[in-house]
Structures are given as C-alpha cells and as structure tokens.
Amino acid sequence: MLFCNSLRPKLTLSATRTFSCLVQSKAFINGNWINASTNETFEVINPANGRIVGSVPNMNVNDAVQAVQAAKNAFEQSEWSKFTAKERSSLLKKWFNLIEKNGNEISEIMSAESGKPINEARGEVAYGNAFIEWFAEEARRIYGDIIPSAAKDREIIVLKQPLGVAALITPWNFPLAMITRKAGAALAAGCTIVIKPAEDTPLTALALVKLAEEAGFPDGVINIVTTNNAAPIGDLFCKSPDVRGISFTGSTEVGKWLFRNSSDGIKRISLELGGNAPFIVFNTANLEKAVDAAIASKFRNCGQTCVSANRFFLQDEIHNKFIDLLKQKVEALKVGDGSKQDVQIGPLINSMQFNKVSSYVEDARSKGGKILFGGRPLEDLGKLFYSPTIISNVPSNAKLYSEEIFGPVVSIVKFKTEEEVIRAANNSRRGLAGYFFSENIQQVFRVARLLEVGMVGVNEGLISAAEAPFGGVKESGIGREGSHHGIDEYVEIKYICMGNLKY
Ligand code: ADP
C-alpha cells in the first residue's frame, strides 16, 4: 500500500483484523510528520472494548506555534498564495477522490476510535467527503461584485479575499465530517489551516491529512496538531495575531470561552455549538414517517449528534399510538460493538458521556418521568453501553428537557395546542435544529417560520447536506457551514473604489 510506513506499529482493530496503512502515529506540520517537541504521546481507545487503537503526539503550545507559523508562511510566501481558484479546486478534487478510494479503511479507523457502527462510519465518509467535493466546485465561484456607483467618475468593485490562517477545532462525534466541512471551505477560499482534532478521535483526522498530503497540497497549507490538553492551544489560537479565524464545533461552554477569549483580536469566529432540538408530532402527521424519522434523528451515532432530536412533543390524539409504534422499533434496535455489520447502536464515547446520560435519566425518573423502555446501562456489552431508552411524562424541570442529552434517550412530553408547543419548543437558549411532522400545509408553513432554530426538518429527521447551510441561532452558534454560505466564514470583503475615471 502507498502509505505503509515501516515504523508504524501494527494496530489491532478487532480480534480478527489489523489496520492497514492510513493509521498515523505522528502529527503533520509544514509538510513533515513529526512527534511532539516533548516526545509525549497519548493513547486512543476503542470505546466498545477499551482496547488501545493507536497513539499520537501529545503536542503543546510550542508545537502549535510552529503549526501556526507554517500556515502563515504558506499563506504569505508559498506557491499556494498564487494558486488560481481552478488550481485550488483541482487539489480539492484530488483529495476527494483519494478519500473516496480509501473510504473503507477510513471507516474502520473511525469506527474503532469512536465506537460508531461501521455502516454509519461509511455513511459519514460519504457525507463528509461530499463537503470536499462541494467546496471543490464552489472554489471557482467565489464571486465579487461590481456595484453601480452614484458618482459618474467612479467604479465600485468588491473582491472576496481569503482571511489568512484559520484554526479548525473539531469534536469527536463526526471525526471526519466536522473537519471536511471546515477545511473544504477554508481551502477553497484560499486560507491555510491548522486542525486541532478531538482527543478521542485523532486517527481519522490524521488519515485525512495523510491523503491531503498525497493529493499534493503545498507544505504548510494543511497542518494538524494532536493533543489531549486543548486549552493552551485554544488560547494560542485566540490570542495569536497570526490566526485570523477560528472555526469551532463542540460544547457551548468551550464555544463561549473561545468567543470571549478571541474578542481582543477582533477575530473571525464561527461556532457550531449544542442544540436542544424539538421533534413535534402533530395530530395530522403521517405516523409511520414520523416514527422512522424519530429513529433516524435520535439514534444516529447513539444520539451523540448536536442536531439529534432532544425533546419529543407529541400531540394528545396521537401520543399513545406514536409511542406504541416507536417502542416496537426501538425494541428491535441492535446494540453492540460497532465493528459488527448488523450493529445499529454502539457505545457512548467515554465515561463522562456515559455518566451524564445515566444521571439525566435518573433525574427525569425521580421527577416523575415514566420509563417505557430501557433506562439502564447494558453492562454485559461493556462499560460504555447504554440501552436505547424511551421516557414519557418528562417534566420541564428535568435535565432531559432543558439540556442536550447526547445519548440514546427519547424524552417525551404531551401537548394539546400548536400555540402551546411552539412556546415550549422556543423556550430554550439554544436553537440549532427543529423537526415537526404535519400533513397540513397551512400548519407546515406557519410552524416552519415560528420555530427559533437555524434548521428545520419538515416531515424529515435527517437534514444535513453539503449543499445546505448548517448552523444555529441563539446560543447554538454563529455562522454557517456547507452550502455557498460556508465560504463566507473564510473570506474578507474588500471594496475597491476606482476614482477619477473619464468615460
Ligand atoms: P465535548 O464536550 O463534546 O467533548 P468540547 O467542546 O469539550 O466538546 O470539545 C470539542 C473540541 O474542542 C475538542 O477538539 C476539544 O479538544 C476542544 N477543546 C476543548 N476545550 C478547549 C479549549 N479550551 N480551547 C480549544 N479547544 C478546546
């Protein structure tokens, strides 16, 4: 294989398989695969069985300074700064093709380090790679304007120019797509990047960068820093004048910290934070469709998705019927080690998540919530497995109602009127996604406009796509990713006034 590196240890994916060559044990700065300056490393663990999947450099702020410097030099001095839009597009296309070609191997790495079922991991590779393809196409359409001037001797010209160095901080729940969604747009715009992947899932990120190296991006254009101590590096990104933009996907708490901390440098910031998505089923809904969508929206990635349905609001007439149908499907879900083909739900990512989900369920139960299915750990499978769970009668003072669950728990509330449910749905400081099911066209348009969220699924539970703008309102974030809007996060608008023209 192209990437075989004799120094790389053979890493075990499961009892019967070994990884091939995309597993990296070094980080990548200025075109070189390197160790941390301290030579420290940290281990990557498979959450399904606690086995070590790999080990990567535990870099510190000095290493990150090198990465930022490399990205700055590449932006200002390397051939990259002179690349045409078409050349950037071609490189992105090469990267896309390589990711596609190596999709199976990347899926295996992702499934092993995140616990995600292998079929979902394959789906994420296709979904995530669609951003590289999309932005390869968009790279050639970053148009400016010529605006009619009020003065006879002037032309108003507007250009879009790349920001400079962009720092991309990504979470573990979509180890590939959260990188490609940012990196595709940044590179299409002409920025250079420093990626800081999540400590739980650095191997997928490194594999992606390995393929970018093969695609031929010039040295310093793409850098990646791995660490299990993110805060000092986040601080550097916030404070360094050489970093012109930060794009972050992760917790609201860290997002707020980055926002505050980068304010001094008036830095471009794009934040994709947590949600608290309502999933409303009206009496007019097609219940079969609604139940299928509920399963897809709730249980994908074991519920560890920021757009996952968080609060299920069921209208009084269909409440019991919906629960019956849902229960039948939830009972049939197969939980287990994600490397097995038929498994639909894997483990939670780590013990912090596991404890959070367990404690939220206990909290709801103690406040009057009624467990209809699950509501307990699945110890026989491993330490981090939690049963798919359905709880009804969830009171509004339960954490399940007001906080993002990030686990396989359907939390149900009954409602009577449309007005009441809109008020309840919007009574949240977050506003990422919202879903509702109705066959009444008047209601569809009305409710879609009234929900205070950045994305609405109408009779649909999975809404993310490379072509569509992803992002939230309120405390769910700033900016959009994907679609042609995604490029805006990485460009500056420059106005050129051509004066004293004689026509
Ligand atoms: P989660 O709770 O889902 O792990 P986090 O917001 O903690 O979400 O993590 C998302 C990403 O942000 C990860 O890459 C993590 O390492 C990184 N991160 C966490 N804290 C900081 C910080 N203070 N500065 C920069 N990045 C951080």
UniProtKB/TrEMBL annotation:
PROSITE patterns: ALDEHYDE_DEHYDR_GLU. SUPFAM superfamilies: ALDH-like (SSF53720). It holds the Pfam family Aldedh. GO terms for biological process: gamma-aminobutyric acid catabolic process. One of its GO terms (cellular component) is mitochondrion. GO terms for molecular function: succinate-semialdehyde dehydrogenase (NAD+) activity. The active site is at E272. Pathway: Amino-acid degradation; 4-aminobutanoate degradation. Gene3D superfamilies: Aldehyde Dehydrogenase, Chain A, domain 1 (3.40.605.10), Aldehyde Dehydrogenase, Chain A, domain 2 (3.40.309.10). Keywords: Oxidoreductase. InterPro entries: Ald_DH/histidinol_DH (IPR016161), Ald_DH_C (IPR016163), Ald_DH_CS_GLU (IPR029510), Ald_DH_N (IPR016162), Aldehyde_DH_dom (IPR015590), Aldehyde_DH_Superfamily (IPR050740). Belongs to the aldehyde dehydrogenase family. PANTHER family: SUCCINATE-SEMIALDEHYDE DEHYDROGENASE, MITOCHONDRIAL. This is Succinate-semialdehyde dehydrogenase [NADP(+)] GabD. It comes from Zeugodacus cucurbitae (Melon fruit fly).
